Amino acid sequence: MNSPPPRKPVKMPRAARGPRPQFFDDPSSDTLLSMNVALLTELMTTRERLDTLERLMERRQLVTREDIESFEADAAGQQERERLREDMAQRVFYLLLQQAERAKRE
Amino acid sequence: MGEIPGDQAEHPMMTRRSHDEAARQRAIRTLRQKLLPRLAMGSREMYYRGIEPELRAANGGNPVEDYREIRRAMLGRPYVRFQLGTHRVIQELMYEALIDAVEPRLHELADKARALPRGLGSLRLDPALPAPRYVTAVDIHCQPGGYAQELFDGDVAAGAIYDRSINMYQSGAGGMTDYMGRSVIQYLDRIRPQFRPARILDLGCTIGHSTLAYARRFPDAQIHAIDVSAALLRYAHARAESLGVAVHFSQQNAERTDFPDGHFDLVVSHILAHETSGKAWPAILAESRRLLAPGGISVHIDLPQLDEIDPYRRFIYTNETQFNNEPFWTGYRQMDLRAAMRDAGFADDEISRDFTQVMAGDDRERLAAAVEQSRQLGHGAPPGSGLGFALLVGARRGEAA
After folding, report:
1. pLDDT number for residue B207
2. How many CB pairs below 8 Å do chains A and B form together?
3. Three-state DSSP class for A77?
4. Potential cystine with B181: which of A90, B206, B213, B350 (Cβ 3.0-4.6 Å)?
5. What is the per-residue pLDDT across B296-319, written as a single tens digit (0 to 9) for each?
6. pLDDT value at position B382?
7. pLDDT band per the 50, 70, 90 thresholds, residue B383
8. Backbone phi and psi for residue B349, each to the nearest 5 degrees, phi listed first
9. Nearest to A21 among B45, B97, B322 (CB)
10. Which residues pair with B28 in a beta bridge?
11. Beta carbons of A10 and B103 less than 8 Å apart
12. Residue A93, min C-alpha distance to chain B (Å)
């Protein structure tokens, strides 16, 4: 019995066709901004994983990888996570939000 | 399953995600739906409290009308550049996170798309159909590879990416992400409560998410949906079948289809117009007219034209052209739609323009959040018209058969 040959993984394009706009006079600033936002999403992702672990620890005091992969937060947990993400977004963007606040005040 | 109310409902065709892949997609959704509107509100404050009075003074006290003037002044502010730059980055990261989950499972997804259909509707592909230039010139919305991408025979990647992107992009799209379809249905119920179309056609249907709303509202109707992308249609077909809905999908260009004259009682499109071209859109309107049976109606939903919104919103809108790969966006928004409808063969009294009052959300709280998000982003139609999508309507005279 021959099993079908393993199919080659597909490499998908990541860069969209079309010119990428530049928002700052120095293009390095555009790159730095993108790295910062990407870092923020990674931190959010890690924070969510940590939350998963903490909830599992509470629940069972024993954690396996399977536990983590199959974990789904309950409705309250999901709401709490949404709040954590919003809070973190606010902290990282504190400077712009302060400028917005100033604009409203002045 | 403990999801946030209004979240997208899972269906069998959807891409599976690991713990972290799902968390990353939720993180980007939060940035897009909660952070970006707050940042946009800051720019708005800067405009109305600082820039607009300055421009008006320089204008001899006259109101500022030219969005290009607003744009020049706004882009002079580092805050605004950060806001717009962040907007773009989040769009790019959204696709990164979606592709991260689709890429390793692409063969599995293609297999599922082949296995799920159970003969309720149908799928008719035309490998000889060329994808129009307006679909391939740039990748619309910055989705890498574009909507017509075909990485191998049986590919569904473009559909898999698109499906999960809708709820990341737009809050309040509803569990079935069919808010556009439901908005048109809400309009039809308002103007023609007795309307019972026998045959319905959805143009540029992508993954058929709007299409299915018509199947629910008009369960006895025969429903057809077309798109130029095979990858989107394979996904759409498998998705509809797995949800138990009969739709006949075919790969066709809406500028010229192979359906007979007068074949449909209802022809619709959802935010398709601004993804076409100055030549293609009038052709699509004429094709819609050709396909309408006597007494039939065509409804095309899109965002309002530039002269239907205030100058600040014009500035916000036109950013889409340059910053979000929407080449026809600004051109479309300046098009004389009534003239195009007349050229398409509609009589003056058969043409109308309307705005949706609210998005037809399935959850009141979520709907309010969506309207608020849209308001803060500076989208939407004139005050009082809710989220404010605009409807271009052609109602053919005559008695329905």
Report:
1. 98
2. 162
3. helix
4. B213
5. 999 999 988 888 888 898 898 888
6. 38
7. very low
8. -80, 0
9. B322
10. none
11. yes
12. 9
Question: Whole-prediction pTM value?
Answer: 0.88
Number of H helices, E strands in chain A: 4, 0
Give contacts of B82 with chain A, Cβ < 8 Å: 23, 33, 96
CB contact (8 A) between residue B81 and residue A41: no
The rounded radius of gyration (Å) of the Cα atoms in chain B is 21
Task: Please indicate whether, in this complex, the C-beta atoms of B45 and A96 are within 8 angstroms of each other.
Answer: no
Interface predicted TM-score (ipTM) of this complex, two decimals:
0.77
Single-letter code of the amino acid located at B331: G
C-alpha distances in Å from residue B341, one per residue of B254, B290, B392: 16, 12, 9
**Cα A3 to chain centroid, rounded:** 39
pLDDT of residue B296: 98
Compute the 3-state secondary structure of chain A and give helix, strand, coil in percent, each to the nearest 5.
65, 0, 35
Q: Which of B18, B49, B138 sits opposite A69 (nearest CB)?
A: B18
In sequence order, what are the residues at sequence separation of 6 or more whose Cβ sits closer than 8 angstroms to the Cβ of residue A91?
A: none
Q: Pick from B262, B252, B286: which is nearest to B199 by CA?
A: B262
User: DSSP states of B287-342 as a string?
Assistant: HHHHHEEEEEEEEEEEPPPGGGS-HHHHHHHHHHHHHTT-TTHHHHHTS-HHHHHH
A59: burial class by Cβ within 10 Å (0-12, 13-18, 19+)? exposed
Whole-angstrom distance, CA of residue B381 vs CA of residue B130: 35
